[in-house]
Amino acid sequence: KYESLVVKRLERGLQLFMVPKVQAQIEDTALWERDLPDLLLALQATNSQISRLWELHMNSVSLQVLLRFFDDLRTDDKYCEVVLSEMEKMDTLLNSIYNRFKRLLYPFEHSRVDITIAEFALAKIPESNHPGELLGASEALFENLMALNHRILGRLCLLAEQVETLLGFEVLPEFEEADSDESKS
Predict the structure, then answer these.
(1) Tens of pLDDT along 45-77?
(2) How many CB atoms lie within 10 A of CB 144?
(3) How far apart are CA 71 and CA 169, in angstroms?
(4) Residue 35 needs a FRET pair 20 to 30 A away by CA distance; which of 95, 112, 133, 135 works?
(5) How far is C-alpha 42 from the geometric centre of its chain's CA atoms?
């Protein structure tokens, strides 16, 4: 429920920013107008991949567990088949997610000119037959895209808060989890 309220407030704040009378009173309106489309596009793209990023992360964890038994089981054909299958799944998913961001520019101005989100998230595509590279790249892609998603949301919230402050809206209270019966006992 709290999350829905926050999302609605963010959405309304961004919609109200588009009103010319509001824009006239917001500091750095020209910068916001320039950056807002790219931020929204990047947010949509990262949001659309969150479940796949978690899947990639979980595949990475599974492969790490499997590789702990490598010294003992490397001659076991079934074990090797499972490891190779996990690596193939990770490679396919990693490349699919990476390719989704190859044409989207990184939305923050501090970056070097024309860096894509894919380049920001992952410096190099790993060799599909190298488990260490595959694990490192999978975790880097997961961490960097999740961090980017949070950073974009934070930036959009800054604009929405400026609009709300200008219009005299009350600040949302901090989220507090309700005490459960288990924590009381």
Answers:
(1) 999 999 999 999 999 999 999 998 888 887 888
(2) 17
(3) 62
(4) 95
(5) 9
